[in-house]
Amino acid sequence: MEKEKLEQLLNDMSLQEKIDQMLQLRGNFYQMDVNAVLTGPAAQLGIGEKDVDMAGSILGTYGAEALKKIQKNYMEKQPHHIPMLFMMDVIHGMKTIFPMPLAMGATFEPKLAGRCAETAAKEAACSGLHVTFSPMVDLVRDARWGRVMESTGEDPYLNSRMAQAQVKGFQGEDMGEEGKVCACIKHFAGYGAAVAGRDYNGAELTERTFRQYYLPAYRAGVEAGVGMVMTSFNTVNDIPASTNKWLMRDILREEMGFEGVLISDYAAISETVAHGYSADKRAAARGAVEAGVDIDMMSSCYSENLAELVRAGEIDEKLIDECVWRILELKNKLGLFENPYKDADPEKENKLILCDEHRALAREAAAKSCVLLKNEGILPLDRKKRIAFAGPYTNCKEIISSWAVTGDAKDCVSMEEAAREVLEEALTSYCEGSTMLNRDTKLAGFESTNRSQNDQKDTQNEKTEESLLAEAVQAAREADIVVMPLGESFLQSGEAKSRAMIDIPDVQMQLFRKVAEVNPNIVVVLFTGRPLDLREISEKAKAVLVAWLPGTEGGHGVMDVLTGKVNPSGRLPMSFPYCVGQCPVYYNEFSTGRPWHEGSKGLFTSRYLDVPNKPLYSFGYGLSYTTFAISPVVLDRTEMGAEEAVTAKVTVKNTGAMPGTEVIQLYIRDVAASVVRPVRELKGFEKVELMPGEEREVSFRIDDEMLSFIRADGTVGSEPGLFRVWIGNCSDTENGAEFVRK
Ligand code: GLC
After folding, report:
1. Residue 664: in which H helix or E strand, if any?
2. According to a count of CB atoms within 10 Å of the terminal CB, is the N or C end of the chain lower?
3. Is the Cβ atom of 700 under 6 angstroms away from ligand 1?
4. Mean pLDDT, the chain, as a whole number?
5. CA-CA distance, 620 to 573, in Å (whole number)?
6. Distance from the alpha carbon of residue 353 to the mean position of ligand 1, in angstroms
7. Model pTM?
8. ω before 79 within 30° of 0 (cis)?
9. What is the DSSP letter of 700?
10. Beta bridge partner(s), residue 136
11. Which residue, by CA, sits nearest to atom 8 of ligand 1?
12. pLDDT in tens, 366-378
């Protein structure tokens, strides 16, 4: 629709009609008996039939038929026939589920992340959806926080590259095109800094840390043209994000230039009352609309109070017009005025969803996201050996995350199913070995999976646990190698799933110990939504492969790595702590005035008495089945001016017997500056695929922008002085050189 017509439409709308566009309800309101809705959830929210009829958007419902029906009914009632927006959490896949986002971060392959987003968009669009609440780009440093699973990790540069790729993947160049949806960067901002890793907790950050680490990926998403941003649940500078004018108007709108739709997180506007910020829902409505939040997701703050606030002269109707204009613009960008059903097409849905091409991409991504942490010559598996699979993930299909809400575990390929396709029947055995969780663990939602019956049996199944264990130990005795698919349940990570301990469930560790007593040749395959405490496993197992929650084709992807069909190339996007006491732990920390280094003798240094400073496995770490030699760093100059650049290069050689991929990483340190700077920061990376014996030069151009930071006076730029540069295959690399910025 031409802009003039759209402007005319806005002018013709009544105040109430405008406010209706700013309300978002759950889609199931439109699929239940209307009286049940009105006396149930609608009444709880404090909204009436008119609000339900006229809400401008819905979330959480998908399916071409269902959404076409809802749209048709809505358009018939809507006085100006404004189409409804359909939104959904398509976080890492629609029906074809890709590896969870933290696993995608481990690929260090933004292009792959983009391809997966593009495929998810195709499945989402033909299912009738217009907007996905993805990518989540919150920087994460604390493994106790359950939502690290949804992030691409602890580094602002990696997160920015991933954010850009995913926004482009979802939206393409024109989100109105077939197979495209509007993306939504979330959660703005600083949600990953929840104090103590406890979800929904406040974020205590200096403004510099906030800007230097937490904001870059949001900015990257905005610069990539994202159509929507979602507010976060946390406070920033002690003001809830959804009513934080500084955050939303000064930073998001002014500094970053975001012109799209700003939606609140679920009931986040009304929750500013619980935060102790808004005195009541009326104040919450005023605070949020003044901050420029366009859509109130699942609260009645706007629908109950905005009209009265305008009539009382407490807010100018212009604020409402601003919000509604952005909402109408988004609907227009999606082409909904011309075609309110966009791509909704049941036939295409059946053809596209889980098609071979999409599964093949999911399999590729699952293999590439695996991170090999340890391998004492036991991988790839020798297929002539007797191999026992023993662990609760052996035949578990719950390998999609708790946010894969549109996916179905039944579509997943388990480890066992994939193994049976490639390993000798006579040489392999499969058993569960233990339940997923200790029996006394009560997990919300766990009853929803068929596994919960096994895992939450009552005592009369004590024997069952004993027999599970006995069966596994016996299988281990008879095998040459024991592959142990272990880890935390998919329901132990995600929203509202913070954990104070980051251990593998005791019942699984008991299995691991008993097996280790009879067979030392153990390969642990770790399914997890977060970094876990792997000290004992790392010590006793011969190999450890992190599979994360690898998605629909997880079993195939992991078996492709275990059998050597795919040489692992994943690298950790987030540090694995030595133990939970180190959290939050991250590579780009400050030095302190008393830095502790390996071998430091001083007592009075920044360290723990009882554990090391370093994480068990560092950011950027991961092994391959082959070996690589990386030459010393060569700089084309050792001095550079503001307008100049230094080229740093290495030669990488595959010195092993298998083709493989190395992730070459560039780190830089500003040794002395007007504010302390991290001991090193990732500034570039490149994946290099090499045949045995092949070598290649990898070079990085270091320019002034790369050296820029928020200086003591608050301006952004570089400063003269000494810089150290490292190029290697992990954030611990000592392969370095120095140059001076004049
Ligand atoms: C949730 C999440 C957010 C999600 C939204 C809609 O509370 O915080 O990530 O997109 O609600 O489901």
Report:
1. strand 660-670
2. C
3. no
4. 96
5. 6
6. 24
7. 0.97
8. no
9. E
10. 186
11. 265
12. 999 999 999 999 9
